[in-house]
Amino acid sequence: GLLLQEMTMAGLHELRFTEEKPLLRGQDAELENSDVFLSTVDTDWKEHDIETPYGLLHVVIRGSPKGNRPAILTYHDVGLNHKLCFNTFFNYEDMQEITKHFVVCHVDAPGQQAGASQFPQGYQYPSMDQLAAMLPSVVQHFGFKYVIGIGVGAGAYVLAKFALIFPDLVEGLVLMNIDPNGKGWIDWAAAKLSGLTSTLPDIVLSHLFSQEELMNNTELVQSYRQQIGSVVNQFNLQLFLNMYNSRRDLDINRPGTVPNAKTLRCPVMLVVGDNAPAEEGVVECNSKLDPTNTTFLKVGCSAQPPLSLQPGKLTEAFKYFLQGMGYTPRLSLCARAVPSASMTRLARSRTASLTSASSVDGTRPRACTHSESTEAMGQINHTMEVSC
């Protein structure tokens, strides 16, 4: 179940969510074999190759823009693509109940999609800043007003950069296993040495999984090794990995800590697996974000398994995150009430702003931000823990 690790509220306010239907209708899906990564439920996905200032970008999209509602835009991690990273999560039944109200747009980093042509020798792969700067072309191409981003690892870093450079295009972010720090000289040297002694799939696996997971969950790890080695072009993957490893620190600081601090202005949900390689980075990222619009979710599995093995848990978290921005219907708000079971299992994502919630079938004025409701409800420390 979900355990509330920490929750503090000014003004002694407690909130209750009530819904007409249970949040989840079934148990978590289990990863039975490697085919689950590439399974497809929908046939409505359309593929596009979009021209950007830094080359073509492969995008897969379902649906069309719906009024003022944002698109859900995803960006995958190193060693994966949108299918390997997100299929299980987006094919989960309850997630589909959510996404049918939104256009969904999966972005593959250059050359990482299945069947991609190999880049020529000497090709200069886009930097992490340039990868972020490619995304406005996607937004403009499809006529999105703004997006809710879901990124994992390297993809989370790209989406955070995107939100820093183009804040008016980003309505919210779900960042899984983000590491906001660039590699130091010791890390760089270790990566170089590892490249001489390890295969590319093994290097990627050490990025995705903790050492404990690599040792104890051999069947799952072997599934990832097979997919990483066979689905993604290895030359292209090496270029993406090199660029990610040469990233700079994400230039963010908590407001008020340094003069003219830069931070993510939109609501953010940070997600990290227990003992995941990126755990320290995610904790540090949390310390640098505005606590009034940031939720920190710790899942009792490392790295990728929460997406593939725990889609129900993350679907529930994502639903509350959307509720916090006013996009999910049928909510009632009760001050000074005892939290319901579902509220206890999953602490709110930006619950303060629920006072202005409206139906997903309507439109939501973008001017409704967390700042107004925070004044009324007080600051909330959004930390929660999920056990597998």
Automatic annotation (TrEMBL):
<dbReference type="GO" id="GO:0016020">
    <property type="term" value="C:membrane"/>
</dbReference>
<protein>
    <submittedName>
        <fullName>NDRG4 protein</fullName>
    </submittedName>
</protein>
<comment type="similarity">
    <text>Belongs to the NDRG family.</text>
</comment>
<dbReference type="InterPro" id="IPR004142">
    <property type="entry name" value="NDRG"/>
</dbReference>
<dbReference type="GO" id="GO:0005829">
    <property type="term" value="C:cytosol"/>
</dbReference>
<dbReference type="InterPro" id="IPR029058">
    <property type="entry name" value="AB_hydrolase_fold"/>
</dbReference>
<dbReference type="Pfam" id="PF03096">
    <property type="entry name" value="Ndr"/>
</dbReference>
<feature type="region of interest" description="Disordered">
    <location>
        <begin position="349"/>
        <end position="372"/>
    </location>
</feature>
<keyword id="KW-0963">Cytoplasm</keyword>
<feature type="compositionally biased region" description="Low complexity">
    <location>
        <begin position="349"/>
        <end position="359"/>
    </location>
</feature>
